[in-house]
Design goal:
The protein has 119 residues and is an alpha+beta fold. It has four helices and five strands. The two termini are 14 Å apart.
Length: 119
């Protein structure tokens, strides 16, 4: 069942997604750390998969992460991080590796598969 505009606004506020601001990734791309640059590439890979929203969050003094949310089921959300062991990798919030940062499309598919309700 489609959500009403009020439901979408409430869900957006819950996950801190601005509804009327321009895409910040273009303005910030020149100042990104390697981790944030990889997360931005992941965000672009998620953009082509319908039904998901994301926001790159860079806390002051903390490591950046990408919050990914299922647009239809806001409870299905995950904070994805990027770190380096030998090479850069994407990891779930609990630390398990999703895949290499050199393959953002593959990681995007895994993330969206996990955040999709079973039908």
């Amino acid at each position: 069942m489609p959500r009403s505009p009020a439901d979408r606004a409430r869900r957006d506020a819950l996950h801190d997604f601005p509804t009327d601001t321009p895409d910040e990734s273009e303005r910030l791309s020149l100042r990104l750390s390697p981790e944030a640059a990889h997360l931005e590439a992941l965000a672009k890979a998620i953009d082509v998969i319908p039904g998901f929203r994301h926001k790159l969050i860079s806390p002051i003094g903390g490591e950046p992460f990408l919050r990914v949310v299922n647009s239809d089921v806001a409870q299905l959300a995950e904070d994805v991080r990027c770190g380096k062991s030998v090479d850069y990798v994407f990891a779930w919030s609990w630390g398990e590796v999703i895949g290499p940062a050199s393959e953002p499309q593959r990681a995007a598919e895994a993330i969206t598969r996990v955040l999709s309700p079973k039908r």
